[in-house]
Every structure is written in structure tokens, then in C-alpha cells.
Amino acid sequence: MSFVTASGLTRYGRHAGRGTLDLMTEATDLALADGGFARGDIDGLVCGYSTTLPHLMLSTVFAEHYGLHPRYAHAVQLGGATGFALVMLAHQLIASGAARRVLVVGAENRMTGQSRDSSIQVLAQVGHPVYEVPLGATIPAYYGLVASRYLHEFGGTEADLAEMAVLMRRHAALHEGAQFRAPISVQDVLASRSIASPLKMLDCCPVSDGGCAFVVSAAPEGPHPVRIRSATQQHNAQHISAAASLTQVGAGACAARALSEAGRGLAEVEYAAIYDSFTITLTMLLEEIGLAPRGRAGALAREGYFDATGALPLNLHGGLLSYGHCGVGGAMAHLAETHLQMTGRAGVRQARRAGVALLHGDGGVLSSHVSLVLESA
Q1: Nearest Cα to Cα of residue 299 among 146, 173, 140, 166
Q2: Does residue 370 sit within a domain?
Q3: C-alpha dihedral over 312, 363, 164, 174, to 10 degrees?
Q4: Which of 343, 281, 319, 312 is closest to 144 using CA atoms?
Q5: How many other C-beta atoms are found inside a 10 Å radius of the C-beta of residue 265?
């Protein structure tokens, strides 16, 4: 048994002159203050990777920088799934007795710390080095292929995908830390510049600077504990050219196991935090998991189903699509918002119910999956 007992989330967007360690520090300061912890209370540290500080030993580099002396330290690389995988690792470390309070942290100055070309080159590593990368494909190109297949199989439209971008922007408008808060319409999305057909600029998440941190504890200590009931992973083919299906990617199986291990069903989920690097990502994950019928996620978004007052509040901070995406910290912001929602501290964004939450993240091109089930303590 473990508990998320504190969270800290920076503003996402431009943080000129601030590097990975600076942003990790800010997020950690916020998390420790949130739970009333001191540096000496932390005996475990797990962090993600940073493309702007690609050190082989980032966890111990940060421990030294921040003044921590953990008895366990580890850095993880699992693409967009890293943030939730870190929480799963912390959960399991506590179950094993290796640590009692684990700091989980991810941050990066991905917006200001590298050029566009270097960013594209780094992210291209998810492609197969023989069969994909030499053809010049980028991450948006892979997701464009997935979106084309999805629209073909399930009869959706580009406007249905655009509804997800509109939804996330509507939620981000209520969060002062979001990178983009100005309202957008479906027509705005459809009229934005084509990136990788059928995906437009506003179908894609931005690049951001920022960071996020949590404390995962063995006991429900502090003023804001939330229980981690289960954590699961699912890994199919790493490369899109080796995938058996572009529309059945393993998210459903991963989430189903997490719910089963938690003794919960989909109908009991009151709040959802689902990875949304592209509008097609959010659409496919919602539908494969079973939180929306196939081909209907966009329509439900349009009808208010995923709003704070709707049947299933979703990514109420604005998600990757509008709050921002700073690498590992991108998905971690989903959990930070979930922590606020489940402890009744989300202010004007507060959902009516958030006692049981399902979180799901993916890495690569929908190739690696992590699901978490949380309950109010």
C-alpha cells in the first residue's frame, strides 16, 4: 500500500535561463511544501530523463544538487509513459520496504533548452533505425498514420478529433499555470497549419519548459493523502512498423488489469487523467480503455461529458494539449491535477466527484502503457 501525499507543479511554458535542475528544484520545493516534508524525510528518489541534460546518472546528480541522501535512487526512460512509470516504481519500492518516502520528479527546459532540429532528432529515436528513421518520419507523422487508420476504421471526422483540442483548451482557461489559455473553436483547429495529415497544429501538444514532483509515502501522512490502489504496465511492439494493429494498442488491456487489481470497474471511475500528446492519442486511449464508445469520444466532448460538471471529468488542468508538455513532466501534470481534485483543492476547476480516478499514460507511438488507479484516502 502507498499514498501520494504531496504534489508540486510549476507553470508550463517559457522559463528562459532555467535548466533541468532548476525546474526539478522548483517542482520539488512545491511538493515538499505541499506535504509539509523536509529534505531529510525523503529516503528514495526516482526521476525521469532529460533531453536537455542527458546525464547517465540524473537521479544522483539531482540528489547532490538538492541536498538529498537517498538509500535508493533511479532514473527511468519510457517516453511519455515515464511519469506514471515512476509513480509505479515508487509504489513498488514502498511495498518492498526499500524506502518509506519516495520523491518522484520530472522536469525539463525542452522549449528554451534546445533547437527545433535537435528536438526532432532526439524524438526520432522512437522510430525503427532501419525501417523508419531513414525515411524521415517524425513523431507527428507516425501519429498522422494512426489518425488516418482510426478515421478509416471508425468513421470519425477531423472535426471529432478537433473537439478534444477545444475541450483541453476550455479546461486550461481555468488554470493560471497553463501554457495556452485562450479559447479555440473546432474551426480554429481545422484551419490551423497542417502538420501531418490529418493532424493540424492545434491537434498537437506544444513544447514546454516546466516540472512536476510528488512524494509517495508508505503511510497516509500529511494533510493531503491519496491512496494508490494499483499500477500496471503493458508493452506491445516498440515500432509502428512492427505493430499488429494501429487501433488496438494495449491500453485497454493495461487499464483493465489496473482496475481489476484495484477491485474496481470502469463504471466506478469518477475522474480520468488520460495522456493527450495529440488529439488522436486522447481519442484512441479513451475509446480503447472503454471510457467512450468507439468513434464517439469527440461527440461526448462536444456534449460536455468530460467537463467538470459532466459524467466523467477529464484532464481538468488542460492536459498536454493546452497545459503543456515538457517531456517526462508532461503526463505528471495529469497526476498533480488528479491529486488536487481528489483532495478538494482544485478551486474553480473542482469536479463534483473524484473519489476514484483512473490515470493512463503512453510512451513512444502508443507502444508502452502505464495505468494507475487512485482512491481518496
Answers
A1: 166
A2: no
A3: 70
A4: 281
A5: 12
pTM comes to 0.97
> Within the chain, how many helices (H) and strands (E) appear?
11, 11
Q: Residue for cell digits 484512441?
A: 284
| CATH assignment at residue 31 | 3.40.47.10
Residue 323 falls in which region: left (phi positive, over 0), alpha (psi -120 to 50) or beta = alpha
86 domain residue, yes or no? yes
Dihedral pair phi/psi, residue 363, rounded to 5°: -125, 160
Q: What percent of the chain has pLDDT over 90?
A: 93
**Alpha carbon of 156 to those of 5, 286, 304, 313, 362: distances in Å?**
41, 14, 18, 22, 22
Query: Is residue 123 scored above 90 in pLDDT?
Result: no
Question: Based on the structure, what is the number of domains in the chain?
Answer: 1
Q: Is the pLDDT of residue 122 over 80?
A: no
Residue with cell 466523467: 312
Kindly report the backbone phi and psi dihedral angles of residue 60, in degrees, each rounded to the nearest multiple of 5, phi listed first. -80, -25
Instruction: Judge whether 247 lies within some domain.
Output: no
Number of neighbouring beta carbons within 10 Å of residue 243: 18
Element holding 330 (H helix, E strand): helix 328-342
The CA distance from 149 to 290, in Å, is 19
Is there a contact between 100 and 220 (Cβ–Cβ < 8 Å)?
Answer: no
* 3-state secondary structure (DSSP) of residue 299: helix
Q: Is residue 93 part of a domain?
A: yes
